[in-house]
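Onboarding guide, step 5: your first structure request.
Type a short instruction followed by the sequence, for example:

Predict the 3D structure of this protein.
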Amino acid sequence: MSKVKVGTVQMSCVADKASNLTKAIEKVKEAAAKGAQIVCLQELFTSLYFCDVEDYDNFELAEAIPGPSTDALSEVAKELGVVIIASLFEKRAQGLYHNTTAVIDADGTYLGKYRKMHIPDDPAFYEKFYFTPGDLGYKVFKTKFAAIGVLICWDQWYPEASRITALKGAEIMFYPTAIGWDTTQDEETNKDQYNAWQTIQRSHAVANGVPVVSVNRVGFEQEGAMKFWGGSFVTNAQGKLLYLGSHDQEEVVVTELDLNESDYFRKHWPFLRDRRIDSYQPITKRFLDEE
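The system replies with structure tokens like these:
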């Protein structure tokens, strides 16, 4: 299909998993009613962003994938005829957990999962306590409407991840996200951080010639210390903003993407043609401090 309608669900969450799942399903239905064919939910949408603390009790939030949440979403996907991108806390085995996104096709079929590769460890983002780095590699899922690549939040900052995903045939790149501001920061710092976050992802669209869809949560979740900044957005294959969300409101928006643009932009900006793949071996080193 040359044109695809993408639904983005930017929402706030509460402590109760069932309530969040119910809310997300209602918003998927809202997106479908607006014409969405692919709907992306934000990172870890079935819970609060629990990685603000290192608490063993939070492991109880995890579940198998496929499992209860994907089962419920598969029924919705089949009923509505939409693809659903669902970011969940995966319990792989006893003591082994991942930050994982499941992809469900428009007929309700579970297509597979991507496990977050880059795991941060910053104040209020203590993800290394909970998540084992992904071991499935970078993934592309061939859905009814498009071949989609899925990366997760901290993966956003790594051009290597987007490049490999694009080279594997992704026609659209999706980034389920949970990122926000420390409310003790000044406004200029907040603005600079958001702009950097948006810029790096728009650059992935430019460098690879594919649309980028980034979906973030909103609201205060850590006793008022962290404000998730929303700002979800969709770009075309040259990084042009087609949709930009607010910083403080829940939003369900549908944006149409023309996938034929990728061919146009890749012909006129032939970055893939001019790649010097013979010179890139050093990128596999941690740092080039030794000859």
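Each response can be followed by summary notes, for example: The chain has a mean pLDDT of 96.
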